[in-house]
C-alpha cells in the first residue's frame, strides 16, 4: 500500500506540473477503479513492462518426473530459465492467471515475482508488438475496413518473446505491405471508404474483389489503380483526402477505366465523389443561423456558393445561390 500511495503522489505531482490548471490533489477517500478503469490500468502496465511478462506452466500429469512436478503452480518468464512463482501474500496467489506482468523478482526460498498484475494473452500483440512475431493475415475471417478507425483490419496469430508462446488470433491493423493497398483498393471500389462511390458498384466492369485475387495483375485496370495508390501512399481515407487536396483529379482517369464510357462525363462532373461541405454559424444576438455550402469541382468552370439564413424570431428562411463564372457573377434568391 505504501508503494501505491507513493505512486499516486508521483502521478499527481506529474499531472500538476504538466497541466498547471489541473489542481489535482490526493483524495484519501478515492473510490476503487471500475472494471473498465482496472482493465485500462492493466493494459498500461503491460505496455510499460512488456519485457516482464510471465506465463504459467501447464499442470504436470500425475506420472510426471520430479523436474516437472517442481513446475506445479510455477511460471516461465522471459528473463530467466528457472521457474518463478507468485508470492503467497499476493492477491493473485489463489487465482494464478495464465499471463501476468511483474515488477521485479526476489529470491528467498524460491524465485518470487513482486508487483504483479494479471493480463490477457490477446493484449500482447496490441500493447507489446515489438516482442511479438506475427503471422500472415488470415483469410478467415477476411480483412475488413473499420470506418471508425479508418484502418484495414485483419486477424493474425502470433508468438511472444524468446519462448515463442503462442498467442491466439487477434484483430489488428493490416501490416504495411502491398497487399494492404490491394485491400484498400477493394474497399474503395465497394464504397466502404467513400460512400459517394457506392452508387457505381453495380456498373463496375470488374468486381472489386478482383483487386485481391492472385491473378489481379492480368487486368490493366487493377494494376493501374494499385500503382497510383502505392505511389501516393494512399491506404486510408485520411491519406486519400490529402491526395485530393493536392490534386482533385487524383484517381479520376483510373476510376473511369472501371466504369462504362457512358458514365465518364457524369463522373468527371462530380469528382472527387465527396459530400457537400456544410458549416453552420449561429448569431446569438440576432437569433439567426447562417449555413454555408461551398462546392467547387475541378472539372467545372463555375464555383457554387449556397448560403442559407434562418431567422428563428420570424421563422423566415432566406436562401441565396451564387454561381460564379470566370467572367460573371449571378445571384438567385428564393
TrEMBL record:
Coiled-coil blocks: none
Protein name: DHX37
Keyword set includes Chloroplast: no
Keywords: Hydrolase
InterPro entries assigned to the protein according to its UniProt record, in alphabetical order: DEAD-box_helicase_OB_fold, DHX37-like_C
Domain of life: Eukaryota
Enzyme Commission (EC) number: 3.6.4.13
Domain ATP-dependent RNA helicase DHX37-like C-terminal residue range list: 197-274
Domain DEAD-box helicase OB fold: 41-130
Organism: Mytilus edulis
Keyword Hydrolase: yes
Single GO molecular function: RNA helicase activity
A family per Pfam: OB_NTP_bind
Amino acid at each position: 500500500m505504501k508503494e501505491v500511495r507513493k505512486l499516486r503522489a508521483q502521478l499527481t505531482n506529474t499531472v500538476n506540473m504538466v497541466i498547471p490548471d489541473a489542481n489535482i490533489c490526493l483524495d484519501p477517500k478515492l473510490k476503487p477503479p471500475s472494471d473498465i478503469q482496472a482493465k485500462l490500468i492493466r493494459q498500461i502496465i503491460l505496455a510499460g513492462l512488456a519485457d516482464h511478462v510471465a506465463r504459467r506452466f501447464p499442470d504436470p500429469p500425475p506420472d510426471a518426473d520430479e523436474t516437472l512436478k517442481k513446475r506445479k503452480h510455477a511460471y516461465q518468464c522471459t528473463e530467466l530459465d528457472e521457474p518463478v512463482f507468485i508470492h503467497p501474500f499476493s492477491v493473485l496467489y489463489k487465482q494464478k492467471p495464465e499471463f501476468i506482468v511483474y515488477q521485479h523478482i526476489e529470491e528467498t526460498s524460491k524465485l518470487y515475482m513482486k508487483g504483479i498484475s494479471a493480463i490477457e494473452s490477446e493484449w500482447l500483440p496490441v500493447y507489446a508488438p515489438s516482442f511479438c512475431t506475427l503471422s500472415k493475415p488470415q483469410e478467415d475471417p477476411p480483412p475488413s475496413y473499420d470506418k471508425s478507425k479508418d484502418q484495414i483490419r485483419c486477424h493474425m496469430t502470433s508468438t511472444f518473446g524468446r519462448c515463442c508462446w503462442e498467442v491466439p488470433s487477434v484483430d489488428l491493423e493490416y501490416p504495411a505491405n502491398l497487399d494492404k493497398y490491394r485491400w484498400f483498393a477493394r474497399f474503395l471500389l465497394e464504397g466502404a471508404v467513400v460512400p459517394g462511390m457506392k452508387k457505381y458498384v453495380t456498373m463496375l466492369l470488374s468486381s472489386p474483389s478482383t483487386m485481391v485475387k492472385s491473378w489481379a495483375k492480368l487486368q490493366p485496370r487493377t494494376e493501374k489503380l494499385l500503382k497510383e495508390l502505392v505511389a501516393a501512399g494512399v491506404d486510408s481515407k485520411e491519406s486519400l483526402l490529402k491526395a485530393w487536396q493536392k490534386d482533385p483529379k487524383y484517381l479520376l482517369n483510373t476510376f473511369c477505366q472501371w466504369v462504362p464510357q457512358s458514365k465518364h462525363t457524369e463522373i468527371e462532373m462530380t469528382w472527387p465523389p465527396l459530400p457537400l461541405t456544410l458549416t453552420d454559424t449561429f448569431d446569438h444576438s440576432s437569433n439567426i443561423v447562417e449555413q454555408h455550402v461551398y462546392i467547387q469541382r475541378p472539372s467545372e468552370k463555375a464555383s457554387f456558393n449556397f448560403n442559407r439564413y434562418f431567422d428563428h424570431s420570424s421563422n423566415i428562411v432566406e436562401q441565396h445561390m451564387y454561381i460564379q463564372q470566370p467572367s460573371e457573377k449571378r445571384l438567385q434568391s428564393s
